[in-house]
């Protein structure tokens, strides 16, 4: 498999962030910081609603000693929604460029071997995280709704990649809590 394709494969593929056991993530994977995507990862695209399950998951991760930083390509400021989370939020970033990930790690004071990135897109979250050797966790999008550019480019190519990867056994949706 070519080098680029390897950079696009997540370390793990899950239904959503609630499938992640943050305590075990810290203990088994030595994760001390999480770079978390916004649109369709914790907030369905086109809404301004933060689900209470997501809030509880983030609070639990913080209680388990994991720092969290939101990094999004969105140009909309969601600060009023996420202020209660008391975590740093950077928007209008350009993932998969390295700088947004490096800024988040600097903010959390974490290194690449102790940082995970969680997001719903291969060409932004996974590719950017893999380029820096972060633990990459791909989750299913919360909504089928996406920006036009995401639908035309990212989701079209993601479908092709998923089809190829499923056929070759390179990716599988893990069920239950992870890590085991």
List strands and helices in order, with pairings.
Layout: H1 3-8, E1 12-14, H2 22-29, E2 33-36, H3 52-63, E3 67-71, H4 79-82, E4 89-90, H5 98-108, E5 115-119, H6 122-131, E6 135-139, H7 148-168
Parallel strand pairs: 1-6, 2-3, 2-5, 3-4, 5-6
Give an overview of the whole structure:
The protein has about 180 residues and is an alpha/beta fold. Helix content is about 40%, strand content about 15%. The chain contains 7 helices and 6 strands; from the N terminus they run αβαβαβαβαβαβα. The protein has a 6-stranded parallel β-sheet, with helices on both faces. Strand 3 (about 65-70), helix 4 (about 80) and strand 4 (about 90) form a beta-alpha-beta unit. The radius of gyration is 15 Å and the shape is globular. The model has no long low-confidence stretch (mean pLDDT about 85).
Search tags:
6-stranded parallel beta sheet, 180 residues, 7 helices, alpha/beta, 40% helix, single chain
Summarize the structure.
The protein has helices spanning 3-8, 22-29, 52-63, 79-82, 98-108, 122-131, 148-168; strands spanning 12-14, 33-36, 67-71, 89-90, 115-119, 135-139. With 180 residues, it is an alpha/beta fold. Strand 3 (67-71), helix 4 (79-82) and strand 4 form a beta-alpha-beta unit.
State Rg. 15 Å
Alpha carbon gap, first and last residue? 28 Å
- Most strands sheet: 6 strands, parallel
Neighbour order of strands in the largest sheet: 1-6-5-2-3-4
Tell the overall outline. globular
The number of E-state strands comes to: 6
